[in-house]
Amino acid sequence: MIKEYTKIRLKTGEIAHIVEVLKAGEAYIAEVIRPSNGFSVTIEDIKQDDITSVFEEIEHQLVKSA
Asked: Is residue 22 part of a domain?
C-alpha cells in the first residue's frame, strides 16, 4: 500500500517519495529526484500507472537497548 513518505521508483527509473495521497491506488503528489541537473528535486502529480515499484522499508536497530 502506498502512503505518505513511501519511496517509489517511477517507470522513468527516477526515485520519488510520496508527499500526499490524493486518491489511494490512483493519484499522488510526489517529490521526484532527478539525477540530471545536479540531483534536482521537483514536486509532481503521479498516477498509479507511473509507478513501477515500491521500496520496502526495513528498520534495523543500530544501538542495543539497555
From this structure: yes
Strand pairing of 40-47 and 51-54?
unpaired
Helix/strand/coil (H, E, C) string of the chain? CCCCCCEEEECCCCEEEEEEEEECCCEEEEEEEECHHHHEEEEEEEEHHHEEEECCCCCCCCCCCC
Q: How large is the average pLDDT for residues 54-59? A: 88
Domain range for 28 is 7-54
Instruction: Tell me, yes or no, if the pTM score tops 0.70.
Output: yes
What are the pLDDT digits (tens) for 33-49? 988 768 899 999 999 99
Total structural domains within the chain: 1
